[in-house]
Amino acid sequence: MHDIGITGDMIRLGQLLKLAGAVDNGADVRPILEDGLVTVNDEVEMRRGRQLHRGDVITLEGISVRLV
């Protein structure tokens, strides 16, 4: 698992996927979410605007990151 630091209190899922390098741009986020490929804390997440907070674990294609 990789740790990703955020400076504010939260970050949106679409922003995190770009920050982590999982997608090149915002348009690439929607298809992977619609296919159910992203989980947040072990639950499938389909909203790119989902607010994430420190301690949340996001997984895409077997790679997990934790917000710190």
Write a short abstract of this structure.
By secondary structure, this protein is α+β, with helices and mostly antiparallel strands. It has helices at residues 13-19, 29-34, and strands at 2-4, 10-12, 38-40, 43-44, 51-53, 57-60, 63-67.
Number of strands: 7
| Separation of the first and last Cα atoms | 12 Å
* Helix/strand class: alpha+beta
Tally of separate helices: 2
Radius of gyration: 11 Å
Q: Care to describe what's here?
A:
By secondary structure, the chain is α+β, with helices and mostly antiparallel strands. It is 19% helix and 34% strand. The protein has helices at residues 13-19, 29-34; strands at 2-4, 10-12, 38-40, 43-44, 51-53, 57-60, 63-67. Strands 1-7-6-3-4 form a 5-stranded mixed sheet, with no helix packed on it. It has a two-stranded antiparallel sheet with strand order 2-5. Strand 6 (57-60) and strand 7 form a beta hairpin.
Which features would summarize this protein structure in a list?
7 strands, alpha+beta, two-stranded antiparallel sheet, 68 residues
Structural topology:
Elements: E1 2-4, E2 10-12, H1 13-19, H2 29-34, E3 38-40, E4 43-44, E5 51-53, E6 57-60, E7 63-67
Parallel strand pairs: 1-7
Antiparallel strand pairs: 2-5, 3-4, 3-6, 6-7
